[in-house]
Write a structure and sequence with these properties.
With 332 residues, the chain is mainly alpha-helical. The protein is 67% helix and 5% strand. The protein has one domain. It starts with a helix and ends with a helix. The model has no long low-confidence stretch (mean pLDDT 86).
């Protein structure tokens, strides 16, 4: 078997990622200038947790989302010539577009934590309304040791899924504190989901996750240190899309491993959230209060540079994701 044959299941996702990559690279310079013209800038003097020294344009989501959308439209048009897009993909795109618009407002007006909680939970509920025979973005049960598969009633499945999507989305947002960290971690998570989807023969999941990953890699061209633009509110768009895709990818994964998917795919942002919340509780501070207790801040305080910090966390994410893929493949 030659390399071309070995990559049979990955050729379409790789082409999709390339479309997203090129589109995002082409769009980002325009977004940088647009953000500057509209005053959507990140002020380094606003609070102590910021590590940059000069104002940097925000609105990175306005660069990533078009890359994702262009790649999905192109690739899925070839995948389904008759135009039978999965309904829940349409729901994801609609909700992500709304989150993009709200995120752009948040990048300028700084919406409160309660407002963010409400609209992210709402998106997690709304996306579940889009379903057809091709699938559903909903956690419909869980595998418990000694009991097997336990199906959730609807009144449990809907809020459980919404909370899961909120947690992943918000944690992806909160790690966006060092140049290139959120976009790089998102690309690694997307690549993991692509591989799981190929293993599970979920072609549309693989293509959609590849579109997210390709867009994040294209954006990383301008977001890597020294960053010329920040993902900012766009981190919520990326986190939301990956959270939804991880739910669907888990449906065809070994039951015992499906419980571990979110923990392993999003290990870095989830650990960071646990690390931060625990330290804030120990210091009797509100868990939503912004500070410099994130893992990347801790690494920076130890003398690591921004580039060294992101690569340490990249390698951790790749190692954990690699372990997950080996486990899935061994049980497949």
């Amino acid at each position: 078997m030659n390399l071309w044959q070995a990559l049979a299941g990955f050729r379409a996702p790789m082409a999709t990622a390339f479309v997203a990559f090129i589109t995002t690279i082409a769009v980002t310079p325009w977004v940088i200038q647009f953000a500057k013209d509209k005053g959507a800038m990140d002020d380094p003097t606003k609070d102590e947790r910021r590590v940059h020294t000069q104002p940097i344009p925000r609105w990175g989501g306005l660069a990533v989302f078009p890359g994702f959308l262009a790649a999905v439209v192109v690739s899925l048009s070839f995948a389904w010539p008759k135009g039978s897009f999965p309904m829940y993909l349409i729901g994801m795109v609609v909700c992500a577009a709304v989150l993009l618009a709200i995120g752009m407002v948040d990048d300028v007006k700084q919406l409160s934590a309660k407002v963010q909680l409400l609209y992210l939970l709402a998106a997690g509920v709304v996306v579940q309304l889009f379903a057809d025979a091709l699938g559903h973005v909903q956690v419909q049960g869980i595998s418990l040791p000694g009991q097997g598969w336990v199906a959730f009633p609807l009144w449990v499945a809907v809020p459980f899924t919404a909370v899961y999507i909120f947690v992943v989305t918000k944690t992806m947002d909160t790690i966006d504190g060092v140049d290139g960290l959120a976009s790089g971690i998102a690309a690694i998570a997307a690549a993991t989901i692509v591989t799981l989807a190929v293993f599970g023969q979920q072609r549309w999941v693989a293509l959609s996750a590849a579109a997210v990953g390709g867009a994040c890699l294209g954006f990383l061209r301008y977001n890597y240190n020294p960053a010329r633009i920040f993902l900012a509110g766009g981190a919520q768009v990326v986190g939301f899309l990956l959270a939804c895709l991880s739910v669907v990818a888990a449906l065809k994964t070994a039951a015992t491993l499906s419980m571990l998917l979110p923990i392993l795919i999003f290990s870095v942002p989830l650990f960071d959230a646990f690390f931060v919340v625990t330290r804030r509780i120990m210091h009797k501070q509100p868990i939503s209060q912004a500070d410099k207790r994130h893992v990347h801040h801790t690494l920076l305080s130890k003398g690591f540079s921004q580039k060294q910090t992101v690569w340490i966390l990249y390698l951790v994410a790749m190692a954990v994701s690699g372990t997950l893929l080996v486990l899935v493949r061994s049980r497949g």
